[in-house]
Amino acid sequence: MPTARQRRDRHGRGVRGPLAWPRVPAMTSRSAAFDDLVLDAVERIERRVGIGEVEFAVEMVPPSDPSPWEARQVPLSRLFPADGDLPPRVVLYRRPIETRVEDPIDLAAIVNDIVVEQLAGALGVEPSTLDPNYHRDGYDD
Questions:
Q1: Whole-number Å distance between alpha carbons of 141 and 133
Q2: What are phi and psi of 65, to 5 degrees?
Q3: 69: helix, coil or strand?
Q4: For the structural domain made of 30-63+72-130, what CATH number should be given?
Q5: Could you give the 3-state DSSP secondary structure of residue 108?
Q6: Which parts of the chain sit beneath pLDDT 50?
Q7: Reading across the β-sheet that carries 55-59, which strands appear in turn?
Q8: 81 with 90: CB under 8 angstroms?
Q9: Please, what sign has the CA dihedral across residues 98, 99, 101, 102?
Q10: Taking the alpha carbons of 27, 30, 31, 34 in that order, is the dihedral positive or negative?
Q11: Paired strand residues for 79
Q12: How far apart, in whole angstroms, are the C-alpha atoms of residue 141 and residue 70?
């Protein structure tokens, strides 16, 4: 009887493994790559200026029931101000942001600008204070 290491499937091919090793970018999901872009943007700002206790989250899509004061277009992100013991929260919506990007190379820049805008709103400062390279290109959030 073969040992566990020598065991093969019924076609004699042996145990199948992953198609790519974990370190290969092909193993990174789109949502994990997007999360990394958000973390990179937050870390860049945090190194430049202290941001205090602000929570960040990424959701796939915004809820289908917008608040009455929000525009009827699909938001790219949302800032929830501090409430009691809860710190301010910034939520980025991955799919609306990805669909607004024409070239995937621009995704990192747009994510950075959205994080800068929302963080500036949470801290009550101008976006250019947090990131001197900030520029608003006409995407809506």
A1: 19
A2: -115, 90
A3: coil
A4: 3.30.2010.20
A5: helix
A6: 140-141
A7: 55-59, 89-93, 77-80
A8: no
A9: positive
A10: positive
A11: 90
A12: 10
